[in-house]
């Protein structure tokens, strides 16, 4: 069973310095039909203008994953981390008992295009922590590369939730298959290009909630990049 979330149906706000789309209710966008899917609470697609960014702000009791598609994002936090996130790199932050951080586009001319993803943690009050890691293009070329998991398997980032996050870059006509264990659910987010999901057409920035399926086949109808969440 699939419930497709079309890109054009998402919440949207254009603040000038920030152009943002919300798959789930966030900030001033509220829709009781789209609050979360399983542990997945936020799926924001953002474009941040050159020289602009999110000022220092707090988080707590949330697993925050950030992925940059184009440009660069400078991160600073109260744990002492100061990094620049670039395409192909994932960042994971456990907010736990509380952190503050800022995110800034250091470019003087180019916007940064990113996804910011929040998952509910498996427990509140965790010790805050941070990771950043690059996953080579060849590791996800026409295959699903595990990039985050509860046990940091296969060199993936550690997330404190019964979830696995995969990334794949697919050439047109190529496909990948993922098996879902009994009782598991999934979310597919199309980052670029277009695909079919078990025959269901999905375009750039579309998402799909998946339940009561045992096998997922994702085929690229154009060159595509997708993120797949395997969720309890």
Automatic annotation (TrEMBL):
Pfam families in the record: Pirin, Pirin_C_2
The protein's Enzyme Commission number: 1.13.11.24
CC cofactor note: Binds 1 Fe cation per subunit.
SUPFAM superfamilies listed in its UniProt record: RmlC-like cupins (SSF51182)
Domain (Pirin N-terminal) ranges: 10-119
Binding of Fe cation, residues: 57, 59, 101, 103
Any one GO molecular function term: metal ion binding
Gene3D superfamilies in the cross-refs: Jelly Rolls (2.60.120.10)
InterPro entries: Pirin, Pirin_N_dom, Quercetinase_C, RmlC-like_jellyroll, RmlC_Cupin_sf
Cofactor(s) of this protein: Fe cation
Swiss-Prot/TrEMBL keywords: Dioxygenase, Iron, Metal-binding, Oxidoreductase
Domain (Quercetin 2,3-dioxygenase C-terminal cupin) ranges: 146-231
Domain of life of the source: Bacteria
Family in the record: Belongs to the pirin family.
PANTHER family: QUERCETIN 2,3-DIOXYGENASE
Protein name: Quercetin 2,3-dioxygenase
Species, as recorded: Anatilimnocola aggregata
